[in-house]
Amino acid sequence: MNASFRPDIEGLRAIAVLLVIAAHFDLPGFSGGFIGVDIFFVISGFLITSILLREQSTTGTIALGRFYARRLRRLLPALATMLVVTSLLTSYLLHESQYQEQGIATAMAVVWLSNIYFTFSDVDYFGDENTSNAMLHTWSLGVEEQFYLMWPLAILLVAGYCKGRNPHIAAVRFFTVITVISFCACMLFSVSNPQFSFYMMPTRAWQFSAGALVWLLSRDRRASSSIALALASSGLLLLLSALVIIEPDSVYPGALALLPTLATCLLLWAGSSGKQTIIGSFLALQPMQRLGRLSYGWYLWHWPVLIIGEQLAPIKGHLGHTFLALAVSLLAAILTYVLIENPIRYGSAARIKTKWQIVLAVFTMLLLNSQFLKWQTDTQRQLATANQAFVRALSDVPILYKQGCDSWYQNADLKPCIYGREDAQKTAVLLGDSIGAQWFPALERALDPAQWRLIVLTKSSCPMVDEPYFYARIGREYTECAEWREKAVTWLQQQSIDRLFIGSTASNAFSDEQWQEGTRRILEEFAHSAKAIYLLEANPTLKVSGPQCLMRHGADHEAACQNPAGPAQYTHVAELLKAVAETQPNTYWLPTSKLVCPDGQCQAMRDGTVVYRDAQHLTASFVANTAPYFLEQIQRYEKATQ
């Protein structure tokens, strides 16, 4: 065995992969298990820095070609195998509508860029998107490989800077600077751009450099047995604390990411002492060693097995299916390790000249990248040909989105969009989030543009409830929503409004009191500026994406693509808000549930029209056809008050 081999590190890898898998499979008590990725990052920083600095101090340089070839030989074969097999299984087992989004993600993963793809495609690791993309877990591999690409160059930069200086002190200073700058960037972006903070290598570099600092500091500071035990115990305590404190809706990675990062640093430092602790003994147990060796392969396979498996049968929450999925993914990891990883890593491929190893690896990456992109393009073409109406429904949104009226969470800018004649005698306003905005085509058609001008003020995911709102997608309080809402109210109070339509989703986790009081405060703001206020009910939802369900089931959609009106929270919130509306002057409750889901049954398609563009938003085409209903409701209320 290699004299520098650290069984405790192999055991830490086992802990890391077990935590990640437990979190992804929704095992009770492990919702924060995604911190296992942080453990992997710190370990990589520790090991790679030790390898590179030892080589640099011994030979005076770093053989970059040899280093990159080793990394590619270690990581690419297993990754490529998983990507190819998963793509084949997806194409054979699932409908085209379920794997069309996989093509680009797979193509990016094979060239180690999927983290960048997920960053700028606004995919949320903790959101609903992650239940369908079998490649989401590859983001961390992209971060790792980008680290491997840049770190040797950083080491050489340190070496050049160290000439004539104490190399140890210079290296500590250098990696400390990287740690501080990267951590500050991580904290900054965790608030302003959570996707960037979570997925990108520069905002994760501090975790790698923390591992580097541990190796540098522990190399000349060997801890005694008692100190090693204290370090290991503190590391374990921090790790357990992180598991308890950190949740999917936590701001992450931010200050909370310090917990698993420091925990791993302490455990690595304790193991560097050479003194065996009870914690180190546990990590060195043979089962932990075996799992540690399989950790890369198991990480690769567990996610696609879960995602594809859940399309065929429920896994999360089902003990038998969970055990089967875990067993299948572990078996795939074992086979990959025995048949792919080890033979290529240590076999004849390792004896090929370094430059040809790199050429072969790059050629493989580019070839697979092109094929995965072709697969995605062909899938889109097939879907567009066979399911034109359903494909169009996916993007059947109100025109206001194309005109830039909605800025989502990026800022709190107020962007009123005005339709109809500017000198029209009457003014109507549509105010709300995306659920409110979806009714624009109905109002536009119901209101005579010669007599009415229609002002639209919408901000996606921003409820019209005057209460603080924690938005899980961005991992923090949605302060832009509160700021935008205040601006919108102030601006509208300066307008003369004949009809004000207010609508937003009913899915937010407000208490009953917050729903009622927060809505009441909004309505009271317009008591003197709006002649009539219509509070729109949030329509019931589907349990699946309407267009995708229609693609999968075709002629059988009537049975498969419908469900009873709900969920129950929507009905409950509707009762709360209706009660509020009835207490406010000139305010009327405008129901939509029976309109969207007649006879208490929600359908993806009705009378030849696709009703839903996803699971909750309605298509603009369907909404436009509801204009007579809106006009009837408005006229009924206004006649009753004359």
Shape: elongated
Q: Quick one: how many beta strands?
A: 12
Arithmetic mean pLDDT = 90
Class from helix and strand fractions: alpha/beta
Span of the ends, CA to CA: 91 Å
Q: Which value, in Å, is the CA radius of gyration?
A: 28 Å
Tally of discrete structural domains: 2
Q: What share of residues are in beta strands?
A: 5-15%
Name the helicity range.
55-70%
**Biggest sheet record:** 6 strands, mixed
Strands ordered across the widest β-sheet = 1-3-2-6-7-9
Number of continuous helical runs: 27
Unreliable spans: none
Write a short abstract of this structure.
The chain crosses the membrane at residues 33-53, 74-94, 174-192, 198-217, 229-246, 252-270, 291-309, 321-340, 356-373. By secondary structure, the protein is an alpha/beta fold.
